[in-house]
Amino acid sequence: MKELFIKYINRECSEEEIQQIVSYFQHSDDFSEVPTIEAISQLLEDFPDMDEDSVSLIRSNILKIARDEKAVKIKRRRITFMFYAAAVFVGVVAMTYVFKESLFNPNSMKESVVESSQTIPGTDKATLTLEDGSQIALEKNKNFKTQNAVSNGETIVYTNSDKNKTAIVYNTLTIPRGGQFYVELSDGTKVWLNSASQLKYPVTFGDDKPRSVELLYGEAYFEVSPSSKHNGQGFSVFTASQEVKVLGTEFNIKAYSDEDYVYTTLVNGSIALNVENQTRELLPKQQSIHSSKYNVLKVVEADVYSEISWKNGLFSFKSKSLKEIMTVLSRWYDIDVIFEIKEPEKIMFNGVLKKNLSLEQMLEIINRTNLINAYEIENNTITIK
């Protein structure tokens, strides 16, 4: 299959080989052997723009996959829109024009969208709250600078110039719905913050002081500066219900206040999780699932690629219900979601899509499964029918 994908990217597939790819997506429940989007992205990084004939050929192949959709409609009630994977892996780096007129032809759509304007995806933005309570809006093309931090509106980077100060000064970074942001802490730790998240951290840590930050709510990916660079001082991340202790590693924490479970996913290194007098150590590619409400703490094998795809500009939905997907989209596009009937909430999907698609493009892909009757977008609210 990998060889076929590479041939497809290079426009060398015969009609029979294209049908093999289509058949693979139609008849497979497990897509773990499919080359990852990240791997295919690497192949495409230096890929030149296609000429119009090639674009038309790719588009017609994608439409052919879409037409075959009905042959794969229900398999264990798991509706897979992986038939769009061809569109995604061809377009994931620079070829988003695959999603243009033909794929989203208004004449072929259901009459389901009320507003004609496109709902744009989220962007880099945040609100920085200083120790004195003053707030600064961080957004593109807006520079900001203090003695310890500099921001270009899309990132903020701290330095450790005040490491000898005895008093610890805290900043808080708040990411709204429809936003994301990157912060580099004074110790060199890198943090990517997802939509609807808030992080509290010291402006400087100090050489001989414990390093700790607090994820007040939301989701964050941490690339921690190792303790060997900080006189052996470890690093801790606190949430409302747990503490994660690390020496130097990469991990993701998802702890939204409107969700019952906290998910901690280890990418590499090792971490110790402290929850209600229990300690669990995680190995790479493991995930802890914790809920104080349901008194649950367990460790499972994680699909790391899917868990951290948000940081890399992708939505990776693997066996996710429509309700879970709409929760993710509501944060990214800053919209509310109403299910007019409950049945569609439980429909399961698989798929990988770029975060820079408009909301309408996202919804139309889901709508093409034919398992929802229609949807409406009005007054910044989506109604699923």
From TrEMBL:
UniProt superkingdom: Bacteria
Domain FecR protein residues, every copy: 173-271
KW Cell membrane (keyword) present: no
Transmembrane segments: 79-99
Gene Ontology MF terms: sigma factor antagonist activity
Keyword Acetylation: no
Domain Protein FecR C-terminal, first and last residues per copy: 315-384
UniProt keyword terms in alphabetical order: Membrane, Transmembrane, Transmembrane helix
Signal peptide bounds: none
Cross-referenced InterPro entries: FecR, FecR_C, Ferrdict_sens_TM
A Pfam family annotated for this UniProt entry: FecR
The protein's name in its UniProt record: Anti-sigma factor
Record organism: Imtechella halotolerans K1
